[in-house]
Structures are given as structure tokens and as C-alpha cells.
Amino acid sequence: MSFNVAIDGPAGAGKSSVAKAVAKKQGFIYVDTGAMYRAMSLYYIRKEIDVNDVEAICARLDEIEISLAYEDGVQQVFLNGENVSGLIRTEEVGMATSTISKIKEVREKMVALQQEIAKTTDVVMDGRDIGMWVLPNADVKIYMTASSIERARRRHKELLEKGGTKTLEEIEQDIIARDYQDMNRENSPLVQAPDATYLDTSDMNLEEVIRAIMNMIDEKKAAV
């Protein structure tokens, strides 16, 4: 029987960094669902397809194959056989992903793949719809968030290290806009699952967040 950990929350909450660390410590597989959606968005951007054109998006779904592989314990994301892990973290891809992920057919394709992985594997899966829609029976569920300005500061630091030029104010506005899109989309909106633990990381460092989630996992295992 596999053990599943679901971590949900808005953009920039630090879900991926925390999920990767927790998975490594637990010996679980980390599944970055956001990266899978981002890879799909990259495909449409490259094809110059309007991400708001639902009919065009759905017409090309069968042309897209998203797969995962692990190198030295690090997830690699492949788009039609190409490793695109280093190409999917731009703001352009992020905003396109927020739009594309609203489409019912897109979500159905992704959710089926994610659920198949979790059936037979101990996983830590992070995203925006995991606890409610992808893994509703997950053993541990966390809704992880932080204030919009704190999330913007974290993202701004990352972008500066990569040579980005966006201001802190611009990044915070992008985050607020993305929150609105994610929380108000028709299909699988971002919401906290009723049985998820709310974790505000605004005033926590990475190690403190990891420790808090590890304690939740240990408590659940001890109770089984």
C-alpha cells in the first residue's frame, strides 16, 4: 500500500522546495505536478497557439506526451522526449500554465497520469489541486501558503539570481493575478481541502517548514 503526501498552495509558497526535501528524507518519489503542466504550456507557446483558445488547445492534446524521470533523485520533466526541466520556470510559462490548467480536458489528462503514479509509489505530490482532486485519499494533506509580498520576495530573489529584471512590485502583482485565476477557475480551483492542515510559512525558514511536515508524516505513520 503506497503512502501519499499532498501539498497544495498558491504560487510562490515554496511547495516544490519543501516537497523535494521531504520526499528525499522519507525516501519517497517527488512528483512536481506544476512542472508537468508547465511542460504542456511550453508546447503551446512554442507552437504559437493562443492559450485562451480552448478548442485549439484540446485539438492538440494528443500530440503531447509528458513523462518523468529521476536523475540522482532529482525529477526531470520530458516533453515529447525532450528534457525541458530548465526551460519551464519562466514567468511567461507560469502565466500560460495558470490559463491552460483551467481547461477540463487538460486537467483530466494530467490527473490520470498523476493518480497512476501514486497508486503504486510512495509519493510527495505538490500542486494546486492535489488534496481535493488528484489524491483525495492522501495520508497527509497540507495547504501551504504565505503572504503575497513574502512570496514575491522569494520569487524576486530567484529571478535576480537568474538575471531577471522584474521589480518586486511587478512580481507581487503577477502573483496576486495568478492567485485569482487559480482560485476562481471552473475546473478544480485552488481550495484548501477540509481535512488539510493549514501551514502559513511567511515567518518560517525552509528547515522549519520541512520539520513541521515531517512531524505530520511521522504522526500519521505512528497512528496506522
User: For the largest beta sheet, what order do the strands appear in spatially?
Assistant: 2-6-1-7-8
User: What is the H-and-E element order?
Assistant: EHEHHEEEHHEHEHHEH
Radius of gyration of CA atoms, rounded to a whole number: 17 Å
Number of continuous helical runs: 9
Sheet of most strands: 5 strands, parallel
Our estimate of the beta-strand percent is 15-25%
Spatial separation of the terminal alpha carbons: 12 Å
Question: Which blocks of ≥5 consecutive residues have pLDDT under 50?
Answer: none
Q: Roughly how much helix do the residues carry, as a percent range?
A: 40-55%
Give the structural class.
Answer: alpha/beta
Q: What would you say the CATH architecture is?
A: 3-Layer(aba) Sandwich
Q: Predict the CATH topology.
A: Rossmann fold
| Number of structurally distinct domains | 1
Total beta-strand segments: 8
Describe the structure.
With 224 residues, the protein is α/β, with parallel strands linked by helices. The protein has a single domain, classed as Rossmann fold (3-Layer(aba) Sandwich). 50% of the residues lie in helices and 17% in strands. The chain has nine helices and eight strands. The strands form two sheets. A five-stranded parallel beta sheet has the order 2-6-1-7-8, sandwiched between helices. Strands 3-4-5 form a three-stranded antiparallel beta sheet, with helices on one face. It starts with a strand and ends with a helix. The relative contact order is 0.21.
